[in-house]
């Protein structure tokens, strides 16, 4: 792994380079997309992005956990968690270690 983190600014810069939108419009576009995804998830809707994967919310029930330092049992309250399931295309890209662009260049 390279250790690099992809940020909102990186996404906006990619839109500038690939689409040619001005920088401020690219940043607004990235924000709108991310806000729409998070708003949909907050409403309990599933978000599916073709060739990428799907995001959803799962309800976790109350359970008993253990404090690793003291060993004392502690109740863990019920909560909702965000889950991501990658598409088969994404799994293949990750496991092959190569991007589509690399394959096309050969």
Notes on the structure:
The protein is of the alpha+beta class. The protein folds into 2 domains: 7-43, no CATH class; 46-105, HU Protein, Chain A. Helix content is 44%, strand content 25%. The protein contains 4 helices and 5 strands; from the N terminus they run ααβββββαα. Helix 1 (8-19) crosses helix 2. GO terms for molecular function: DNA binding; structural constituent of chromatin. Belongs to the bacterial histone-like protein family. One of its GO terms (biological process) is positive regulation of metabolic process. Heterodimer of an alpha and a beta chain.
Unreliable segments (pLDDT under 50, ≥5 consecutive)?
102-106
Q: If you consult CATH, what is the topology of the largest domain?
A: HU Protein, Chain A
User: Cα-atom Rg, whole angstroms?
Assistant: 19 Å
CATH superfamily of the largest domain: IHF-like DNA-binding proteins
Summed up:
By secondary structure, this protein is an alpha+beta fold. The chain has helices at residues 8-19, 23-42, 88-96, 100-105; strands at 47-49, 53-60, 63-66, 73-76, 79-86.
Write a concise keyword list for the protein shown above:
single chain, about 110 residues, alpha+beta, HU Protein, Chain A, 2 domains, three-stranded antiparallel sheet, two-stranded antiparallel sheet, about 45% helix
